[in-house]
Design brief:
This protein is α/β, with parallel strands linked by helices and 193 residues long. The chain has one domain (5-166): Cobalamin-binding domain (Rossmann fold, 3-Layer(aba) Sandwich). Helices cover 33% and strands 19% of the residues. It contains 7 helices and 8 strands; from the N terminus they run E-H-E-H-H-E-H-E-H-H-E-H-E-E-E. It has an 8-stranded mixed sheet, with helices on both faces. Strand 1, helix 1 (21-32) and strand 2 (36-41) form a beta-alpha-beta unit. Helix 1 (21-32) packs parallel to helix 7. The two termini are 33 Å apart.
């Protein structure tokens, strides 16, 4: 069976250094099925004027922290350009974005930047679960994972690697040829894609 490469995106707010358990669990699950997995993390890129801690400090919610004292500074490179380089060099078979509502605009910008490659994309995370109908309407998004993704994503990758039908996987909405496949039916997306 051919190698199958998955590029996961941890779409995070700048310098909020908590990596979600979900990304780690997805990576481990995929690696257990023989997938090659890489992570693109937006955490250390300058993607905003100020960090979440700086905003919380201004609101008197936390004590000021100087990240430079700890050797932590944002990467001054352009996050979108760096992402495109990673995609072009790694050449994944699937790109998976994990996001929350506040990081969705950045995640969408990343997916749009590589849409020309034709690499299938899937979006998961809390926002995907509650905003699937918003996310699936984006032309840069091919699939949305709703709810827990470990089993759904591993099944998706196994079926994609084997060239099997992927339209009936639990927890995944799939857009193909202007049709939206979900476990509750098939709908037209002619106005959405």
């Amino acid at each position: 069976m051919k190698d199958f490469k998955v590029l996961l995106i941890n779409c995070n707010t700048m310098l909020d250094t908590l990596v979600t358990a979900g990304i780690g669990i997805l990576s481990a699950s995929l690696k257990n099925t023989g997938c090659d997995v890489r992570l693109f993390d937006t955490t250390f890129f300058r993607t905003a004027e100020r960090t979440g801690d700086e905003a919380r400090t201004a609101a008197l919610q936390v004590k000021k922290t100087n990240f430079k004292e700890f050797g932590i500074e944002p990467d001054e490179g352009d996050v979108v350009e760096e992402f495109v380089k990673v995609v072009e060099s790694y050449k994944p078979d699937l790109i998976g974005l994990s996001c929350i509502e506040v990081t969705w605009p950045l995640g969408l910008e990343l997916l749009k930047a590589v849409r020309h490659t034709g690499i299938p994309t899937i979006v998961g995370g809390a926002y995907a679960t509650f905003g699937a109908d918003i996310i699936i309407r984006q032309p840069a998004v091919d699939m949305v994972c709703i709810g827990e993704g470990e089993q759904a994503l591993t099944e998706l990758c196994q079926k994609m690697r084997a060239g099997e039908d992927i339209t009936a996987i639990h927890n995944i909405w799939i857009k193909q040829n202007h049709l939206l496949y979900t476990r509750i039916g098939i709908f037209t997306t002619s106005g959405a894609s």
